[in-house]
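Morning. Coffee machine broken again, so started the prediction first thing and wrote up yesterday's gels while waiting. Chain of 619 residues, entered below exactly as on the submission form.
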Amino acid sequence: MTEHSTSHEGRQPSTAARPFERTRPRQETDESGAAVSAKAAKDVAAATAAAAIPAPAAPARPEGDRLRFVGAATRRIARGIDLDEIVLGLCRATVPTFSDAILVFLRDPLPVGDERPVTPFVLRLRRTDRLRLPEERDPDEAAETLEPLAAELCEVRSGGALAEVLRGVRPVFGDSAAARAALPELLGGGHPVPTGHRTILAPLRGRRRVIGAAVFIRRPEGPAFEPNDLLVAAQLATHTALGIDKAVLYGREAYIADELQRTMLPDSLPQPTGVKLASRYLPAAETARVGGDWYDAIPLPGSRVALVVGDVMGHSMTSAAIMGQLRTTAQTLAQLDLPPAEVLHHLDEQAQRLGSDRMATCLYAVYDPVAHRITIANAGHPPPVLLHLGGRAEVLRVPPGAPIGVGGVDFEAVELDAPAGATLLLYTDGLVESRLRDVWTGIEQLRERLAATAQLTGPDHPPPLEALCDDVLDMLGPGDRDDDIALLAARFDGIAPSDVAYWYLDPEEQAPGRARRLARKALQRWGLEELSDSMELLVSEVVTNAVRYAERPVTLRLLRTDVLRCEVGDDAPQLPRQRRARETDEGGRGLFLVNRLAKRWGATRLSTGKVVWFELPLG
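Came back before lunch.
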């Protein structure tokens, strides 16, 4: 590439208008920015002439403008948080004030922190900005164009001219010998700088390595670059590179925070029998994406479900880590089928083991769709709100309890009705408390909002769960996002008594035969005779295994919902496991049949024994 410009050695200062002067006011100003009056100027001139002493020379105006430009440009670059904002800040600060066009190349991929960059060294054109003159807006009158300015990708050859310029770090004029060899490699063979344009090639060096390059371009009719412009380009490149380094680190931290929060919360909610679930999570702000709020729904034996919502104090990685430990502990305790108050007691002990200042609030509820009842225990958490089918919203009277981590306190559980069609809303205090309102005012506003939403669908039709969650979050005002928010909504459908069959069987040899007869009669009553053969075979196998080890009566329950579910409970804590029986074995094939014929099956250990269940598809 050939540049039609003279060497910069020995160049005389240009008398043409500097680009920094394009927006400089012509009127002189004093230190406060106000215009100096004509009278004050005459007085100063008269006093100077009377003293016959020459006035001290003022700094050159272009140099002052240059310093102001660098200060304003670096502030604009520093305002950016992410990568795109920083690169855009560089482009908007330099075009058209410093150059008529700019190309910004960044390493692809950008190395993060101390990690080793990948090879080969590839630069990608991240952004290009240019000043369009009025005559260029008409393609018929445009004599030349700068688009496309460069190829999208450039592989920096080891030992090549571009690698040498980047290694030198300092900006160079485009007509220098090093730049004349490096620019064609950077821009690509099919994208030369148009004849007569002036350029500066400035490497972008971060804290440890070169991460890109910037090319500043001026048109031939404008003023040429001066030696001091190299210092300006160096300042812009340094601030941009350091900002990009920080943006990449910030992006990595934000990614880690997002991944941590995502893995701490359930990917999807289960779909237990007799209840519909919906949830929402909102971080406090984009800069505080990790918090200690969580929610969970855990299927329990007997078609029950545990509903959990909690809030660890603070917004940090530590809070999120504690939240993850408490959530895991709650899931483990739920699988033991402990009462809600006992679950909170063990969570309190776990929080004390984690540290003396590990505090959290939690609400743990267990819903039984067969009994249409819900049992709730609270540890310093805001009370839940129950939206009845007729549209009445009620704040449930639940003992408040002490927060988890206090230690040495008892938790009390209450059992309440959970009528079919009602909706239970569990939430964290970020939904109802902020700088603008106290928690009880927020709870009352939430209750009124739920009642108003229910009126829109009528007394016989509850509002859809997903829409209800969105409508609840819409009540938040601009100043109400002081804390992260976890929201869990449960619609109680329940299981009708006519769809449940329940028996006790004495642990004796006749129990499997009786279980087959009872199951057959229940399926005939429900019009499911086509499932009788499979049900009788599987019930016989599971009950036989229960009777073998049980000392107390065995329970048998059939549930008809979207599937046909069978549950067999006994007082033996040992869980059955599937194994491959040998040809000489007389037993060991029962669970193999269950695994092959059932849609799903499982076993859960209880405080009083265990429950083995399986499901058959209807129809």
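The two ends are 78 Å apart (CA to CA). Going to sketch it on the whiteboard this afternoon.
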